[in-house]
Structure formats: C-alpha cells, structure tokens
Amino acid sequence: MSKPRRILFFGAHPDDCDLKIGGTSIRLAKAGHLVKFVSCCNGDKGHHSMSSRDLAARRYLEAQAAKEIAGIYEYQVLDTPDCELEATLENRHRVIRIIREFQPDVVISHRTCDYHADHRAAGQLVQDAAYLVKVPLCCPDTPIPEVNPVFAVCYDSFVDPRPIRIDAAIPIDDVMETKLKMLDCHKSQFYEWLPWDKGDKNFDVTKIDKVAWLNSMWIEPRDANIAKLAGLNCKYVEAFEQTPYGRQVSKEEFNALLNP
Ligand SMILES: [Zn+2]
After folding, report:
1. pTM for the model
2. What CATH code is carried by the domain that includes residue 181?
3. Containing structural domain, residue 203
C-alpha cells in the first residue's frame, strides 16, 4: 500500500465526529489509514440529571469505546466545557498545533452556519487555522507540515446562507453496522440526553429497538437526503464540501482522499 493517509476531524462534542464521519473513518481505518477525532469540548453539558464533572468523565470513556470499535488512531477530547467554546487566539493556536503535529492530508469540521454555538466556534477555529497552519512564524514552536492539508466541512441540512455543496459523497452501507455500534457507545447522549432534549421525558431505552431508534432518529432521513442530492444508489452516505482555504484539489482527488 502507498503511504497511509491521515484524516483529522474536529467535532465540537464527543459524538459529533462519530455521526458526521464515522462510516468514512471505519472504512479508511480498515484500509490502514490514520483517522484522528478531536472533540473541542468535553461534553459536560449534554445531560439533564448528571453532574457536569461525572458527565465529562463518562463521555470521555464513551468516546474511547467508540474509537476502539472504529479502529481509528485517536479520539482526543479537549477540556473546554460545553457551550463555552469560542474562536479565541488561544484556541486557534491549539488547533494549529494539533493540525501540525498530526500532519493530516484532510482536516474537516462543522460549517460556521450550524445551529449550535460550539459547532460554529469549532468550524471557525478550523477555518481560521487553515491558512495559518503554513505560516512558520505563527506558533513557531511547532514546525509547519510539508504539505498544507485540504480543508473541508461536513454535511449539514442548514440552508442559510446556502445549502452545503456536496463535493465528496462516501457510501457507507458496508460499514453501517459498525457505525451504529459507535453511536451505541454514546449511551448518555442517544438514550438519555437527546430523547429528553427532544421532549421525551420518560424515554426508556429498555423498551426500544436501539438500532431502529438510532436509524430513524439520526441516520436514515439525513442519509437518504444526501444520497438523493449526490445521485447515489445507496442507503447510507456521508458527505463533505471542500473549502477554499487550504490546499485545493480536484473533486476526484478529494473523493479519493476520503475513500480507501
Ligand atoms: Zn455537537
């Protein structure tokens, strides 16, 4: 095999990476490529009854369990509390150093028009880092990589100011079972916080079919929409848009970078 590729995803919370690029990551990892997830926040606000301290500890373990299932290189969880991530200079430098140290071929995050302030801040931090990563006098303690990465954003359904453009669509039917097992690791979210947040205050995980629940709530409507937009004949798919801020590659090369 030629040199393994390195893919770096900055999610805002522990579970964003899994949802947005879990399937693509499983496929890449299986083929020997290195995928690193970074959660910019520690996940300490995503619950209605646990303390923030206990929740952060629990979510770290959930992320590590998902990492083992996916076979990825690392799932790093930074220490910023949820709902408090900002595009500060300190965080920008932190993101630049993480990118330089991992030396990825592709860096992906959220768009800056997302619904959640932490998602927007993560997207802004990565966008701000995209050019600065190759400026040697910016964070001079961490050498610049030989090749500037391609920068991309992951699929979302927001349409203001415009819908996302699908530059790469990765069919993941063959690894969907494993992706669902990754999501199943985040029990504090999918079976506790998220149902409660959506209004189901008496949700009982013992009374549901977990795979059917995860699929219907978090996967199938979204993936069907992406497959339709991308003109793909598959059920499950993840999609990405290349941004104009990093190294520019053709659509074909962008797709090839994210496909094993
Ligand atoms: Zn999130």
Report:
1. 0.97
2. 3.40.50.10320
3. 6-258
Place of tokens 């805002």: 12
| Segment 109-164, tens digit of pLDDT | 999 999 999 999 999 999 999 999 999 999 999 999 999 999 999 999 999 999 99
Between the CA of 232 and the centroid of ligand 1 the distance, in Å, is 27
The structural domain count of the chain equals 1
Cα of 15 vs centre of ligand 1, distance in Å, is: 7
Could you tell me if residue 1 is inside a domain? no
Indicate the angle between helix axes 176-185 and 16-30, nearest 10 degrees: 140
Interval between CA 43 and ligand 1 midpoint (Å):
9
The rounded Å distance from CA 17 to ligand 1 centre is 9
Q: Give distance in angstroms: CA of 177 to centre of ligand 1.
A: 22
Backbone angles phi, psi at 138, to 5 degrees: -90, 120
Position 22 in a domain: yes
Q: Is residue 216 part of a domain?
A: yes
